[in-house]
Amino acid sequence: MSRPPKTPTHSEDPSESYPDIRKFLESIPYAQTLGVKPFFMGEEFTLILPYKRENIGNPTLPALHGGGVGGFMEVCAIAQLFMGSKAENLSKPIGINIDYLRRGKPIETYARADIFRQGSRVANVRVRAWQESYDSPIATLHGHFLTAEGSAD
Amino acid sequence: MSDKILERLWEMGPTLTTETPHAKQLGIKFVAVDKGRATMSLSYNKELIGDTNTGVLHGGAVTTLLDQASGLASIAGFETLGATATLSLRIDYMRAATPEKTIIAQAHCYKATKHVAFIRAVAHDGDETDPIATAQACFMATGPRLNAEDIK
User: Fold this and answer.
1) Which of A16, A64, A89, A93 would disulfide-bridge B59, Cβ 3.0–4.6 Å?
2) Superfamily holding A19-151
3) What are the structural domains of chain B?
4) pLDDT at residue A1 in the model
5) Mean pLDDT for the stretch of residues A127-152
6) B23 and A92: CB-CB below 8 Å?
């Protein structure tokens, strides 16, 4: 992927130009429980997972919970699909693969999703989660999602 | 794995979820552990809903439950006692979890080498033959490890 390896800073306003996505995330209780926030650079959407102790999976290391990081990337994929859809309902995961590459440190985490194929019923999405450097992802997810249009059938 | 390690895991069992902040927040509970096997549960919790129109829990909550149960099965699958870390996790979602119902995750470590444990897991809400999701995972043995004879 040839994306700019830029890590967001809080000086820019996250969602001014995309009020829908903030509303969308606020409407998902699970996303609120994780504590995610949207962030935009131009049209590029990044999901932020601020650090909080409730997302820790291993207090000794310490490390973020792998399941929580997986759920965070699932939310990111679903949000990305939501932005490209006119349907009211949500897309749903069919089959996902998560690779854990590095320990999730107790700091802020970012995720970005790319839709590799958008079909009428099924979409293929890849997500990268990183912390200090975009080039050193802590986890990746790829999988198929039933699109909002497809799940309405 | 030795009976000594299994005994130790039964003692540790409940604390594995209560002392894991994220498992505690979601409400994941320890149910049982055996050689290479683990069962955990997740009660219905409105804070974990993924779609407010249906009240169905978010896939991420099921992912976390399956990861947690698979992690314990991997610990219970190695010859030595110690921490493990998820390398990969594949999840297939067969159907939506029924609102209000408790989800059970059963994980089985069907093979463990010295460093890697291979796990299959299933999540259901009462009927094992009607799964919500299935998982396939690899875990890595990490950190300092205890042999069975070192356990007091």
Assistant:
1) A93
2) Hotdog Thioesterase (3.10.129.10)
3) 3-143 (3.10.129.10)
4) 46
5) 93
6) no
- The secondary structure of chain A as a DSSP string is -----PPP-TTS-SSTT-HHHHHHHHT-HHHHHHT-EEEEETTEEEEEE---GGGEEETTTTEE-HHHHHHHHHHHHHHHHHHT---SS--EEEEEEEEE-S---SS-EEEEEEEEEE-SSEEEEEEEEESS-TTSEEEEEEEEEE-HHHHT-
User: Where does B19-151 have alpha helices with state H?
Assistant: 21-26, 59-75
Are residues B68 and A32, on separate chains, in Cβ contact within 8 Å? Answer: no
From the list B88, B91, B93, which residue is nearest A92 (CB)? B93
Per-residue confidence at B101, pLDDT binned at 50, 70, 90? very high
Provide the shortest C-alpha distance from residue A77 to chain B (in Å).
11
* For chain A, domain boundaries: 19-151
Q: Which residues pair with A136 in a beta bridge?
A: none
**ipTM of the predicted assembly exceeds 0.90:** yes
Q: How confident is the model at residue A151 (pLDDT cuts 50, 70, 90)?
A: confident
Closest residue in A to B69 (Cα) is A67
What is the mean predicted confidence (pLDDT) over A3-7? 52
Bigger pLDDT: A15 or A26? A26
- Whether residues B21 and A57 touch (CB distance < 8 A) is answered with yes
Task: Name every residue in B having a CB less than 8 A away from some CB of A.
Answer: 19-26, 46-53, 57-61, 63-68, 71, 83, 85-93, 96
CA-to-CA separations, B135 to A101, A137, B43, B66, B109, in angstroms, rounded: 19, 23, 19, 7, 12
How confident is the model over B89-116, as a mean pLDDT?
97
Specify the higher pLDDT residue, B105 or A5: B105
pLDDT at site A8: 52
